[in-house]
Design brief:
- The chain is an alpha+beta fold and about 350 residues long.
- The strands form three sheets. Strands 3, 4, 5, 6, 7, 8, 9, 10, 11, 12, 14, 17 and 19 form a 13-stranded mixed beta sheet that branches. A four-stranded antiparallel beta sheet has the order 16-15-13-18, with no helix packed on it.
Length: about 350
């Protein structure tokens, strides 16, 4: 029998699942604030995995991904321990904002300090209250407001355990990214805790495709960590493609953008991705792809200023094969083509 698992002063016995409210700084109205954390402590030993959502308070797809995962019946047979934090930036979530009330980015405030700013204190609480208890992590994100990301995993692939997790997530695209200083990934790396980041969708919007991909990816990663039993019938293995590089295409002039390319599409070098014109249509200028690649991010607001980032292109050694896998992935994530019965009605 495993030992009990402690978090926030609460003891969770093997085979038990429980919600814990971890205290965080109060509101200035004197209302108490807590982090809602759900812990599932398996009867058998295994990794301690955290799944975090809304570290940017307006990135809400992760909240729904975690809700669906916690409803999964397969968690009844979990090995190890799962710590689910659907809303990390609780203050930003309430205010529908990316930032904390002190206007700081929580994901640029690690490792934080117990005597610093609100952001520093929240980061410090996360490390002491959660991260120190974990062996692995998955951080769920979306694009910023008015932007959209194609489902993708971002990871530092020079670490073998991180690469294993990233490939197991089964997203068709992996971006091999350096760790951003003062981020949650940075703090975890210094503690030798492998963490991958999943990106999909837009801030303040639900995206069913991105949500379904996130749920599938987290469960698949848990299977690779042997936290979940293997399926009797193995699904077709998705071999993700790792981007060689990525680049943002910026607006050559200010005006109104008419996009002609969508997320997941393949573009050729010098292909037209959109047209920018003034409100009268007297001056048109094409937005051209600087290189061949797959569109993994784009702006959703057509009113643009010169120099503004419009399209994010990932470049691969074999873009044609990536496109085939992206199209197959999109078909698999489409609720209308899903042959597997689900108790979750798709969000439309």
């Amino acid at each position: 029998m495993r030992e009990a698992f402690e978090i926030g002063g609460v003891m969770i016995q093997p085979g038990q699942r429980i919600s814990v409210d971890l205290p965080v700084p109060d509101l200035y109205t004197h209302n108490s604030m807590t982090w809602p954390i759900h812990v599932i402590h398996g009867k058998k030993p295994g990794p301690v995995l955290f799944i975090s959502g809304a570290i940017h308070g307006d990135e809400i797809n992760g909240v729904e991904i975690i809700r669906r995962i916690l409803h999964s019946k397969s968690l009844n047979r979990i090995r190890g321990t799962l710590i689910a934090l659907p809303v990390v930036n609780i203050f930003g979530f309430i205010n529908q904002s990316r930032y904390l009330p002190d206007r700081r980015d929580l994901n640029r405030s690690f490792p934080g300090s117990g005597k610093g700013s609100l952001a520093a204190r929240m980061a410090n609480l996360f490390i002491k209250g959660v991260l120190t208890k974990c062996t692995h992590g998955i951080d769920l994100h979306t694009a910023a407001i008015h932007r959209d990301n194609f489902p993708q995993v971002r990871a530092m692939l020079e670490d073998p355990e991180i690469e294993k997790m990233a490939r197991a997530f089964s997203s068709p695209v992996i971006i091999d990214t350096a760790i951003v200083e003062d981020s949650l990934r940075s703090a975890a790396s210094k503690m030798n805790i492998p963490v991958i980041v999943y990106e999909g969708g837009e801030a303040l919007r639900f995206n069913e495709e991105a949500i379904r991909a996130g749920v599938k990816g987290v469960i698949s990663t848990m299977r690779s960590l042997e936290m979940q039993p293997k399926l009797k019938r193995q699904p077709k293995k998705v071999e993700p493609y790792v981007a060689r590089s990525t680049t943002w295409v910026r607006a050559p002039q200010s005006g109104i953008l008419r996009s002609v390319k969508s997320l997941g599409e393949l573009v050729e070098r010098h292909e037209v991705m959109g047209i920018i014109s003034d409100p009268f249509g007297e001056e048109d200028e094409d937005v051209l792809a600087p290189a061949e690649g797959i569109i993994i991010g784009r702006t959703n607001i057509p009113l643009v200023n010169e120099g503004e980032a419009l399209f994010h292109i990932a470049q691969f050694k074999d873009s044609e094969n990536v496109l085939e896998q992206v199209e197959e992935f999109q078909n698999d994530m489409d609720p209308s083509t899903d042959k597997t019965p689900s108790s979750e009605p798709p969000i439309v």
